[in-house]
Amino acid sequence: MKYLVLSILTIFLLGCEGPIARKPIRTSTPKLVKSTVERNKELLSLEVKIINALVKKDTLHEYLPTANGSWYHYEIKNDSTTYLAKNEDIVTLRYNIMSLMNDTIYSADEIGIQKIKVDQPNLFKGLRTTFTLLKEGEKATFLFPSSLAFGYHGDQNKITPNTPIKSSIEILKIEQKQSN
User: Is the pTM above the cut of 0.85?
Assistant: First the structure.
């Protein structure tokens, strides 16, 4: 009897293992992520080549590169002021969106005059950086690769995915943040 109780107790203790984790049904493959990154790099490289060719071909304007990868030239330059918009300032602006071949996608009238708080814009990524480059009364044309435009989603309307764009942007007014 003693052996029977001891063997039942041994079986009971050995049978109480912790739960065994199941293996995942599907795993993410690093190859897929790596191939997506490589494809995006290739796309950006191609777009940069196209933009550089357009900049080189346009001998009427002097293009300036930006730190984030776009190019621009001034249409109207304002040398009478030095103030550039900063966080919390409100910028009133007009802009349009065109293809790199100058086909109008959205006209400035269609978009309308926008009043935007600098640090909280609801605009595409490339346009947000223009606030720190243009002064009140200035107008410039920017060339944006798709990664700075509407990216791989497009705008769900007229701009298809991975479309580089051109945009003429005019800063009408900069309202400086009031200090307390």
Answer: no
Structure tokens at 29: 């493959």
Cα-based distances in Å from 65 to 27, 54, 69, 113, 127:
42, 13, 7, 26, 14
Q: What is the pLDDT of residues 68-111, one digit of tens each?
A: 999 999 999 999 999 999 888 999 999 999 999 999 999 999 99
**Euclidean distance between CA atoms 95 and 18, whole angstroms:** 64
State the sign of the Cα–Cα–Cα–Cα dihedral 106, 107, 108, 112. negative
Q: For the domain that residue 133 is a member of, what is the CATH number?
A: 3.10.50.40
Res 10 pLDDT > 80: no
> For residues 148 and 126, what is the distance between their CA atoms, to the nearest angstrom?
5
Domain carrying residue 165? 72-175
